[in-house]
Amino acid sequence: MDLYSTKFLVTTLTFSIAYIIIVTLSGAFRSGIAGLMGDHTPEHEGFSSLNPMIHVSFLGYLFLVLQSFGWGKHIPINPLNIHGRFRPLKLGVAFFSDTMLHIIFAIVGLFVLIAWFDFRIIRIVNEIILYKNISHLYIAQTYPLYSSLSVSIAFILAAWVALNTGLAVLEFLLNTCLLGMHCIMGSSLNYMEYSFYFMFLAPLLLMIFFYGPLLIMVTYFITYAGLTLAYLINAL
Questions:
Q1: Does the global pTM surpass 0.90?
Q2: Which of 229, 225, 110 is nearest to 158 (CA)?
Q3: What average pLDDT does this structure show over 174-186?
Q4: Bridge partners (DSSP) listed for residue 56
Q5: Contact status, residue 99 vs residue 143, Cβ threshold 8 Å
Q6: DSSP string, the chain
Q7: What CA–CA distance (Å, rounded) separates 234 from 236?
């Protein structure tokens, strides 16, 4: 087996481990939050389960294998089931709960990496997120005194941070479209005229024009938050 094949297998296995854990936890979390806000649709469809097979998307995992980035099954939310006081706030919490969870996951993962290694690990993680320079060898070369097990775990954590960062942006854009469509439906009797734009055209345009800039912004935010947390803990 040549070096390229070995690198591909290691990367696929590493990202698969992080992917399965992430989509399972975030899917169950979004389902639970939706229930707390008043919509039990995800729970009735089984998404509250921690069974990974319920949350893994075939297409999303295929992209993960090919591009080292994938997504889980979309957790449906019916806004009509959410009502009462503070309804706009409840809708925002329900729709963007997974986005916030992904950001928190990424910050915690980066903090653990900084605490375990040092600040040089940030450059490696950001290279994975922004430029798709993915290889466990970068970690091994930067930290030659660390064991192979430590490098392997660090690579899984780096994949964890990278996937959570990308999914935070992806879910934010998708849920913005879905929530926007709901607002159109609530304010216009001719909402079906807009359904195509919000279900297909709007997500595509948002991905084309905003995914890259938002990914950079979120990456820098997570980096700053992870560094701040590391300094605070170290100060204690």
A1: yes
A2: 110
A3: 80
A4: 72
A5: no
A6: --HHHHHHHHHHHHHHHHHHHHHHHHHHHHHHHHHHHT--HHHHTTTTS--HHHHB-HHHHHHHHHHS---B------GGG--STTHHHHHHHHHHHHHHHHHHHHHHHHHHHHHHS-THHHHHHHHHHHH----HHHHHHH-TTS-HHHHHHHHHHHHHHHHHHHHHHHHHHHHHHHHHHHHHHHH-TTTHHHHHIIIIIHHHHHHHHHHHHHHHHHHHHHHHHHHHHHHHHHH-
A7: 5
* Distance (Å, whole) CA 169 – CA 211: 7
Q: Which amino acid appears at position 169 of this protein?
A: V
145-177 burial code (b ≥16 CB/10 A, e <16): eeeeeebbbbbbbbbbbbbbbbbbbbbbbbbbb
pLDDT at 189 over 50: no
Q: Which residue shows structure tokens 């701040």?
A: 228
Question: Average model confidence (pLDDT) for the chain?
Answer: 90
Q: Which residues contact 92 (CB under 8 A, 6 or more apart)?
A: 179
Distance CA 58, CA 216 (A): 27
- Residue 167 structure tokens: 């999914």
What integer pLDDT is reported at residue 192 of this predicted model? 47
Tokens of 8: 């591909």
Residues 62, 17: Cα–Cα separation, whole Å: 14
CA distance 193 to 196: 7
The residue assigned the tokens 């775990």 is: 153
